[in-house]
Amino acid sequence: MDNLRIERTRNAVLAEYRGEMTLDVTGELKVAFDAILADAECLILDLSGVSFIDSSGIGFLVSLASRVENEAKSFYLYRPGAQVVRTLELVQLKKYFKIIGTEEELAPLML
Amino acid sequence: MSKRYETDSIRVLVVDDQEALREALREMLEDFAYEVDTAEDGEQAIVRYNEFRPNIILLDMNMPRMDGLAVIKYLREVEEDSDVLITMLTSDRSPQNKLQAFGAGANDFLYKPFDRAELLARVGVGARQVRLNRRLRQAFETIDDELVMVAELQGRLLPGVELVPVSWPGMSDVRLKSLYHPSGRASGDYFDFFPVGEGVLRVVVADVSGHGARAAFLMGIVRTLFRVSQSHYMGLADAFQLINTHLCGIIGEEDDFATVLAVDLDFGHGELRYINAGHCPGMLSSDSGVDDLLPTGTVLGFFEAPYQERRLKLPPRGGLFMYTDGFYDWQRSGGGLFDYDSFRELAARVVAEHGELPDSLMDSMCAENGGAPAFRDDVTALWIAFASPLESSYHCLAEAVAARAMVRGAVGDLAGLIADKDVLYDLDLAMTEAVVNVVEHAYPEGQPGDVEVRVRVDVGRSVSVEVADGGPGFDPTGRDLCPPGPREESGRGVYILSQLVDALDVIRRDGKNVVSFIKNIEKGAWIICE
Q1: Helix (H) or strand (E) holding B65
Q2: Same domain, B401 and B358
Q3: Taking residues B29-58, what's their average pLDDT?
Q4: How near does any CA of chain B get to the CA of A94, in Å?
Q5: What is the ipTM of this complex?
Q6: A88–B contact, CB cutoff 8 A
Q7: Are B383 and B394 contained in the same domain?
Q8: Which of B106, B137, B168 is the last residue of a domain?
Q9: Which of residues B341, B370, B387 is at a domain's end?
Q10: Which of A67, B261, B469, B479 is the most buried (most CB within 10 A)?
């Protein structure tokens, strides 16, 4: 995917997605993350470039988090924008995700 | 003229220049329980008249200073007293003298010298007449008081006559103005307006034949039954049927009837529905001209008949003028009849000029007549000015990429009206969820149909959205609107939608599933705010 940028360290994968996270892209995202997840102990999804998210996008995030955690791996949302956070709050799922907002929080995960 | 004392006593004023005769008459009348006062000439008679307020005057014809004829003329013409009974006393037996006295306003005549019994009999007849007049006056005042009460009650049945900006849901720029001039105390004219569902305004103007309490009573029935049509969500045809049945039952073989024009202005669907039961044509003005809402059926109250409504497209902006026939058929001050054709021509011109009816129409009628029109009947009018909300439609194949692009386009259009980014985001999300619902669930897999989005903007107030699909539909009954847990795979979109909007409904209409919602938006969020 053109708007998905991947950065890997020894144990972690930082995936930065830019654009809207809606029904028209969630299918493609699922395929892309199938490949990414295979060899990562910790997945950090950078949402700072996500301008819009709907219930399909949230469904994708929930499904991804569930898969990662079922494999005893870690999953974080990194720098979600105000509207994304608001939408997560709207469906009362903000607490379901581990959210980090700063580079200081990110750094130890990227070792 | 001041009222006479309303007791049973009869006051008699004896006017004669012969003292002996005056005193003899006083004694004789007082014996029969009359209250008596006397005067020795015409001038003194006028003074005593004003102080004593007699019911009967025994008046000598020939007196010094002011004779009997002058006294009669003064009382009838200056005092304008047509009630006091005047019996002339004279020795002049010429027919000319008698004719003059009757011509001036005398009621009776008695030649001197008169017989005591005859005089008492004549005064007795006068006294009976006075008592009868008193009873008639009291009866009239009772009836008049009741008519005042009827008129007051009737006034309470009519909405205010001032300019009314309507604030019912779905009517953002609708203004009404009424005019009501009953020709008498109580009237058969009637007007009313009220909402019948969201975005539908029902307006009624009616005219019950005749005047007075009878017409007002029937008008009250028509008004009440129309209000019943509001509380029972009745369409126009059912409402007319109901009213006609009741009126036929009440009126029976009498010749009363009612003419009624009732209009439903459906701003939600851009439609005007009306029934005109023998009433003057309403006038619908728009940018393309003036259309008459001609009679669609006969008057109400004569016989059972079906009433069918007629439908027109409601212009995006314009006005509706409804009135009663008192506006025409009156005599012009310069001669000639101001008839329906004259009225129609003038009203159409004023309506087309977008004047503030009915004031500007009255001004034009005054100008054309050279003064206030001499209306002969009740005059009632209702003016409804409206401008429909901004409306846009979008549609595409119910497929994810196209649907998302369509919603982005709709939100882009709204961004020209709404400045607040959070509000736009919420609208974007709400529309997206409604559209995604169609994309994912409306059509059998592999057979996507269309999805249509209709956006109506009440500038400064709200955005209403309808998302329609032609799929088989689903039953929303029993779906709860709790937030779905993380493990649940469906229901999240509808939940988000429900949290973002102020009203949400799912219906099936005209073979389509329609998800509709309204989001109220604070004034500060708008770029344009009227």
Answers
A1: none
A2: no
A3: 95
A4: 11
A5: 0.93
A6: no
A7: no
A8: B137
A9: B387
A10: B261
> Do B68 and B90 contact (CB within 8 A), yes or no?
yes
Choose between B230 and B287: higher pLDDT: B230
Nearest to B496 among A23, A90, A96 (CB): A90
Cis geometry, peptide bond prior to residue A80 (ω within 30 degrees of 0): no
Task: Give how far A72 is from chain B: nearest CA, Å.
Answer: 17
CATH number of the domain enclosing A59: 3.30.750.24
Which residue is it, tokens 């995960």?
A: A109
pLDDT bracket for residue B283 (50, 70, 90): very high
Q: How would residue B476 be classed by pLDDT, with cut points 50, 70 and 90?
A: low
Give dist(CA B165, CA B395) in Å, integer.
34
Does residue B124 belong to the interface with chain A, where contact is any CB pair within 8 Å? Answer: no
A96/B489 CB distance under 8 A: no
Look at chain B and report how many structural domains it folds into: 3
Q: Which domain, by its residues, includes A23?
A: 4-110
Same domain, B478 and B430: yes
Q: How far apart are CA A42 and CA B6, in angstroms?
A: 108
Which residues, including other chains, have CB under 8 Å from residue B61's CB and lie 6 or more apart? B67, B68, B69, B88, B89, B90, B92, B97, B101
Q: Which domain holds residue B402?
A: 390-525
**pLDDT given at position B161:** 54
* Residues 6+ away with beta carbon under 8 Å from B378: B181, B182, B183, B184, B187, B188, B189, B207, B211, B324, B326
B401 CB neighbours in chain A (<8 A) are: 24
Structural domain count, chain A: 1
> Cα-Cα-Cα-Cα dihedral of B293, B294, B300, B303, to 10°?
-140
Please check the confidence at residue B396 and state whether its pLDDT lies above 60. yes
Does B436 contact A91 at a Cβ distance shorter than 8 Å? no
- The DSSP bridge pattern shows strands B35-39 and B11-15 to be parallel
Q: Which two tokens stand for residue B54?
A: 């007699």
Chain B residue whose CA is closest to A65: B486
CATH code of the domain containing B462: 3.30.565.10
Does residue B327 sit within a domain?
Answer: yes
